[in-house]
Amino acid sequence: MGDDEKARGPGDDLQPLGAATPAWHPIHILMQEHSSLLGIAGEFQGIAEELRKAGDADADSRQRLDHVVAHLRESESHYLREENVLFPFLEKHGVTQPPAMMWAEHDEIRRVKKGVYELVDAGDWGPHLTAAASSLAELLASHFNKENGVLFPMAIEVITKEEWVEIRDQFDELGYCCFTPERAPSPAAAKAEPSRAQEASGVVQFETGSLSPAQLSAVLDTLPVDVTFIDQDDRVRYFNSSADMIFGRTKAVIGRTVQQCHPEKSLHVVNQLINDLKSGRRDAADFWITFKGRLVYIRYFAVRDRGGEYLGCLEVTQDITDIKGLEGEKRLL
Questions:
Q1: pLDDT reported for residue 4
Q2: Predicted local distance difference test score (pLDDT) of residue 6
């Protein structure tokens, strides 16, 4: 059977779109990842069926299964890049509903994948695993077809060439799954670095001292916490670049409303919290979750001026796993 006669898969009808974008282009990368992830989902189905028939996993099948599961876990970067970079750029061009719908489907994919991981960890090689593998493959095929056929052509139409270079730059910051894409042809999104003369000419004056913009930026980035500021209009205005960033953040979220930064299913919680902080019903709120095996402490603070006027909300996120285990004292370096 020749290449032209091979069975066509989901997204094959949209190859002209992928072919129309160069290999470095974010849409080309996303579509290539779609193809790779569909192949991984198909491989997972085959392994699950083998395990069901055998009733147990030998060394070879277990190795292949672990390889597939590792790729599924790594694929989280694919969804994060869309949610934190592509979707905000679309929203800037007035495209809001399709990204919201795709994000909801991302959460459904995550739910199904979580069930897969639980079955694999439990060594459940029966019909539950084959059903989960089939469900995941069908869900990915349906979702990727929607993105390839609707979302991506829409993005190509509204996003400018200059913005695609910036998007690629931010994609690189979050990393990739399945394969390493071709480098962009030129340094992506040139970053305006202030000259030493500019740094020296201005300082930020506080009551307790003053810092140059470069010093202030370095201090904030050195903090052992992730800091995000949302202004009085609920728009993200700043985040620091801590060395060990817990949750992926990209410059595309600047100017985006905090509501757009969360999936629709959690909007009622976000809105309740923001309203409570604005109204003064509370000045802070604390949450803690387990994320990638680490205990993460998330705190929200109302930021007010001296007259009590609400200026915004400060989100502070910290990995407290090691802190929680401290005992006794340590007085020497």
A1: 40
A2: 37
CA distances from 198 to 115, 195, 202, 203, 240 (A): 54, 5, 7, 10, 21
Structure confidence at residue 202 (pLDDT) = 76
Domain architecture of the chain: domains with CATH: 9-174 (1.20.120.520), 200-324 (3.30.450.20)
d(CA 255, CA 147): 24
What pTM did the predictor assign? 0.70
The 3 state secondary structure assigned to the chain is: CCHHHCCCCCCHHHHHHHHHCCCCCHHHHHHHHHHHHHHHHHHHHHHHHHHHHHCCCCHHHHHHHHHHHHHHHHCHHHHHHHHHHHHHHHHHCCCCHHHHHHHHHHHHHHHHHHHHHHHHHHCCCCHHHHHHHHHHHHHHHHHHHHHHHHHHHHHHHHCCHHHHHHHHHHHHHHCCCCCCCCCCCCCCCCCCCCCHHHHHHCCEEECCEEECHHHHHHHHHHCCCEEEEEECCCEEEEECCCCCCCCCCCHHHCCCEHHHHCCHHHHHHHHHHHHHHHHCCCCEEEEEEEECCEEEEEEEEEEECCCCCEEEEEEEEEECHHHHCCCCCCCCC
For residue 154, what pLDDT is reported?
95
Q: What is the mean pLDDT of each run of 10 residues along the chain (333 residues)?
A: 38 50 94 96 95 84 91 95 96 94 96 95 91 97 96 95 93 90 67 45 82 92 95 95 86 90 86 94 94 94 93 96 90 73
Tell me which residue of 270, 272, 315, 273 sits closest to 297, measured CA to CA: 315
Cα separation, 30 vs 177, in Å, equals 10
For position 187, what pLDDT does the model report? 52
Query: Phi/psi at 10 (nearest 5 deg)?
Result: -55, 135
